[in-house]
Amino acid sequence: MTGQIVIAPMLVALSTAILALLARFDGRVEKAVSLVGAGGYAVAVAALFDAVVLAPGGPTTLTYGVSDWQAPFGIVLVADALSAFMLALAAPVVVAAAVYSVVSVDERGQRLSYHPLFHFMVLGVSGAFLTGDVFNLFVWFEVMLMSSYVLVLFYSGREHTRAALGYVVLNLLASALMLVAIGGLYATTGTLNMADMARRLADPAAYGVAVAPTLGLGALLLSVFAVKAGTVPFHFWVPSAYRAAPAPVTAVLAGVVKKVGVYAVIRLFFTVFGGAAYASTSTFAYVGPVLMLLAGASIILGGVGAAGREDVDGLLAFSSIGQVGFIVLPLGAAMTVPAATTTLAGAETMLAVLGVTAALVYSLTHALAKPLLFLASGTIRSALGTTDFAQLGGLARRTPLLAGGFLLGSLALVGVPPILGFFGKLLVFRTVAEGIAAGMPAGALAAATMLVGAILTIAYVTRGWNQVFWGEPTERVQQLIPVRWGRSRFAGDGDAGSSSIAPDGGPSTVTDRALVVQVAVVVALALGLVGLGVGAEVVVDAATDAAHAATGTDAYVEAVAPVDPGAEYSPSHAAGAANASDGSHSLDASAAVDGGER
Amino acid sequence: MSDDAVAGDRSAAADREAATERAVRESYDRHTTVIARTVVRVVVPIILVTAVGLLLQGHNRPGGGFIGAVLTATAFVLVYVIFGMEYLQDDFLGLRAADGGSHAAVEYYRWLFAAGLALAAGSGMAPLIAGLPFLTQAVLFLHHIPLYGEFELASAFAFDLGVYLTVVGGLLTVLGEVGSE
Amino acid sequence: MTAQVVLAATLGLLFALGTFLVLRRDVVRVVWGVSIISQAANVYLITMGGLSGGAPIGSFGEGAPPTDPLVQALVLTAIVIGFGTTALALVLTYRVYEEHGTIDTHALAEADPDRASADGGTANRAVTATHDGPLDTETTDDRMTHGGDER
To answer: To the nearest whole percent, how much of chain A has pLDDT over 70?
Structure first.
């Protein structure tokens, strides 16, 4: 019975989306459903985290056979410490964005089913984190992306339509490539279940699996995940899509959807391919240098790009390219050290654990800080109608709370103690340092890249802060926010300016109460960053558990315990594998109920 | 849904000629031949029956909710192309222009969509009450039914029906919105 | 074996055609290219399942051993997803045409706000435009994608 907790986050998101769809006759009911659903999602994730990570006797792995089918025949959901960590990272962003959406999305947005789409996106994200099946991962990617296409495109102005078209086309191509890679993996390994695939790849001779093709297919998958994560050769959709989407959607895209790409890299390349070896060299040796290149290029390009932008949104979008570089770098470093590449069971080396831990802690920092900054930018836009540096200035005097939140978010990116960002950066630097000590090739170059990236981060964050919050208030700021927010309670502030610059849309549609809520969300996220920084030990412990789960291929396989269909199993004539795959309800339908063990 | 449509088709038989004339007159530059109109009149009921057949057997034979729904939507597309949107909305679905015309029809499709989604998800969640995993299916064979003999009652049919309603609702919404452009 | 060769050649042709179309300037052709590539991926999946054997459904245990049913189930899912996304992309193209009056990517690039971000007024215009987009098209797409999610 307790097994139901595994699927709870997905069911909550699905129910919320459908109920919000059914509640569309009344905007207020729909908003209430959305809020309650986001809260319920957080509760479900907390319960799952409690059951998995805080279980008595250490972190455990829960599995859930959808429709009561056993792995590898049916789709299994696997909640290990890594999945639980990623869900716990997503939940606060989802709640913050949902609260922000309720006050910031206008009537027209609601008629376009904003709230149902938002929760469908959350459903896709949760599904991607929980699934233990490669094809199912593709399906959840699609659910997530389809909702995001609409959220990015149809709430934006006409100027962004063309730019966001690139986002759609690129992701459609990536989806097709992912399908090809999955088809190839199925033909090569004869299974789609991640645990089963890991088992077969770890012992290719016993199962008659050729490892060589999986290297190429892995490269294909890596490029697909790089598109999702927005690292350098595939980064160009990031700025235009982030500018086009409304602030809460951008917050979820930057905070959570990007991390799905990172999660997929960790899950597939550490857990599934981690045990595989070709020509007595671990697959790490082939993937690691590529990851290092992607990460280094992202750090430099993102940093330089962000330093050159003339508006807050653009700065933040380029910054998130650079920050993803910092997340991927420790993964690459952990893969390229000689110990990892030559040992056949090299997945669970100390450095691999450290690298994944660093990536996860940095992901958590970024998942909280970047939504905070995007929501702050959205608040500025809804109050002033623009985020261009030329028209902003001196906001610190008008909105000290918003400025404080923005400052904490910026400092988290820079990595100043006691904010969580410090520990993220510390772990990333430590991974690279230990990698160099262990003889990582081009280690000095990696360290130099990281330093340059860190300096660039300081540069663009300072520039953004100076331009927006310091100095004398510009004419536009004086006109729209004549007195300090909070001084005159709900009177004056935004409404005073709404008549003077009506065409901007922002001030005329946003009430003061809404602005107060928006600022409150930003401040809450900022406090969360500081709180987690103070209690960083807990975070690092949880991330270490997650890293052990990610690198412990054997434990993963054992927990999922896929049934062995027989050694004579041949992938091209898999007659017996009547699989209850997603969408094939015509196949799994006749499954008679025979008492669940759960 | 499609049964209603078929029923409406039959009841509207008397004034079909007049409605057709009106639809042709009202539609902008649509001139369809007598042959096309006659063929569609014969073919559409067949398509609808086939679609329902595919839906009903979908849980353990070739077919299913999705393909049944696509066929149903195809029938609507045929009526729409040959007789025009006004005919489809006014006479086929019984939504008069006074009720809001195109807008009312799309609203109706949307409810269909949401209801289908709720049905599909609900049928998946029902086993949770019994402590079984999500989407667990059951099947019940009814024997000795008068006239029919053996009947197979599968819970998967509820899911299929949900998929059917969702897809019909979604496709017709698209059709209605794009068509009214 | 010959079937495999024929399919391999077909796949190569489809991927080449798709890539060629994706690289064209016309947005509609790009969308066709994307959908051809995703169809090619489906054909590839079917090929990966092996081509010998009978129909896997409808003939339970009769005659020849059935071919792998799993890939067919996967392709069914992928087709449904591709159906939704292609429809979305086409309507999106229509919206691009409606808003910009052209579907030539080069002509569209001229109006790209990212290239004119130095112009201080861009953001203002963007915000203004939010409120006079054509509502009907947007509602359509939104609904369509919903369908795609669940189908």
So the answer is: 86
Dihedral pair phi/psi, residue A549, rounded to 5°:
-65, -40
In this prediction the pTM is 0.85
Residue A592 near chain B (CB below 8 Å) = yes
Q: What is the DSSP string of B33-75?
A: -HHHHHHHHHHHHHHHHHHHHHHHHTTTSS--HHHHHHHHHHH
* CB-CB contact of B48 with B6 (8 Å): yes
List the beta bridge partners of residue A583.
none
Question: In which band, very low, low, confident or very high, does the pLDDT at B100 lie, cut at 50, 70 and 90?
Answer: low
Rounded distance between C-alpha atoms, residue C103 and residue A124, angstroms: 31
Strands A281-282 and B139-145 turn out to be: unpaired
Q: Is the peptide bond before A418 cis (omega within 30 degrees of 0)?
A: yes
Backbone angles phi, psi at B155, to 5 degrees: -70, -25
The chain B residue lying nearest C81, using CA atoms, is B66
* Rounded Cα–Cα distance for residues A292 and A448 (Å): 13
> CB distance B60–A596 less than 8 Å?
no
- Strand A281-282, strand A277-278: pairing: antiparallel
- C interface test, pick of A141, A172, A475, A504 with most C CB neighbours within 10 Å: A172
Q: Are strands B139-145 and B149-154 parallel, antiparallel or unpaired?
A: antiparallel
Contact: C137, B181; criterion CB under 8 Å:
yes
Say which DSSP state A68 is in.
G
Which are the contacts of A524, defined by CB distance < 8 A and separation ≥ 6? A96
B170 CB near a chain A CB, below 8 Å?
Answer: no
How many B×C Cβ pairs under 8 Å? 51
Which chain B residue shows the shortest CA-CA distance from A116?
B114
pLDDT in tens, A182-210: 999 998 888 889 999 988 888 888 888 88
Tell me how close the Cα of B142 comes to any Cα of chain A, in angstroms. Answer: 15
d(CA B58, CA B64): 4
Phi, psi of B139 (to 5 degrees): -140, 140
Nearest to A42 by CA among A114, A115, A122: A122
A323 contacts: CB under 8 Å, gap ≥ 6: A302, A362, A366, A370, A413
Q: How far is the first Cα of chain A from the last one, in angstroms, to the nearest whole number?
A: 5
The shortest C-alpha distance from B57 to chain A (Å) reads 9
Which of A160, A44, A22 is CA-nearest to residue A94? Answer: A44
pLDDT tens column, B65-85: 889 999 999 998 888 888 777
**Tokens (6 digits) for A542:** 């949880």
With the C-alpha atoms ordered A480, C125, A309, A227, is the resulting torsion angle positive or negative? positive
The closest CB to that of C34, out of A172, A506, A587, belongs to: A172
Q: Let me know if A394 is exposed, middle or buried by CB neighbors in 10 A (0-12, 13-18, 19+).
A: middle
Alpha helix segments (H runs only) across chain C: 2-22, 27-48, 69-100, 105-110, 122-130, 135-150
ipTM summary value? 0.79
Which residues have a Cβ under 8 Å from the Cβ of B20 and sit 6 or more positions away?
A: B37, B83, B87
The continuous run of DSSP H or E covering B139 comes out as strand B139-145
Domain boundaries, given as residue ranges, for chain C: 2-150
For residue B140, list its beta bridge partners: B153
Q: Which sequence spans correspond to the domains of chain B?
A: 2-179
Query: Do residue A21 and residue B133 have CB atoms under 8 angstroms apart?
Result: no
Flag whether pLDDT at A133 surpasses 80: yes
Q: Among B136, B141, B163, pick the best mutation site for testing chain A contact (most A Cβ within 10 A).
A: B136
> What token pair was written down for A63?
């599995």
- DSSP class of residue A388 equals B
**CB under 8 Å to B44, separation ≥6 — which residues?**
B9, B75, B78, B79
